[in-house]
């Protein structure tokens, strides 16, 4: 999951070197914290959060295959 979020984010931003994904495992779910440079924050979130929602949907679909619950947070 971490690699998937990182791949998607790096393809969206202008500074792919500043994309970092931190994985925090909980009891029932995995939290993926996505950090990008401040200039690229708008590109990752998109208008009215559409791109962020699409990224979360893709990750949720991939997580369902592995019977996991994944939450993507953009920091």
From TrEMBL:
It comes from the Bacteria. InterPro entries: KH_dom-like_a/b, KH_sf_prok-type, KhpA. It is found in: Cytoplasm. GO terms for cellular component: cytoplasm. CDD domains: KH-II_YlqC-like. Signal peptide: none annotated. GO terms for biological process: cell wall organization; peptidoglycan biosynthetic process; regulation of cell shape. Keywords: Cell shape, Cell wall biogenesis/degradation, Chaperone, Cytoplasm, RNA-binding. Gene3D superfamilies: 3.30.300.20. One of its GO terms (molecular function) is RNA binding. Its main location: cytoplasm. Belongs to the KhpA RNA-binding protein family. A probable RNA chaperone. Forms a complex with KhpB which binds to cellular RNA and controls its expression. Plays a role in peptidoglycan (PG) homeostasis and cell length regulation. HAMAP family: KhpA. Forms a complex with KhpB. This is RNA-binding protein KhpA.
């Amino acid at each position: 999951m971490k690699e998937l979020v990182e791949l998607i984010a790096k393809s969206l931003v202008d500074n792919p070197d500043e994309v970092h994904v931190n994985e925090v495992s909980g009891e029932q779910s995995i939290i993926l914290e996505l950090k990008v440079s401040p200039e690229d924050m708008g590109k990752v979130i998109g208008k009215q959060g559409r791109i962020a929602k699409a990224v979360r949907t893709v990750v949720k679909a991939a997580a369902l295959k592995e019977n996991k619950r994944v939450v993507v947070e953009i920091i």
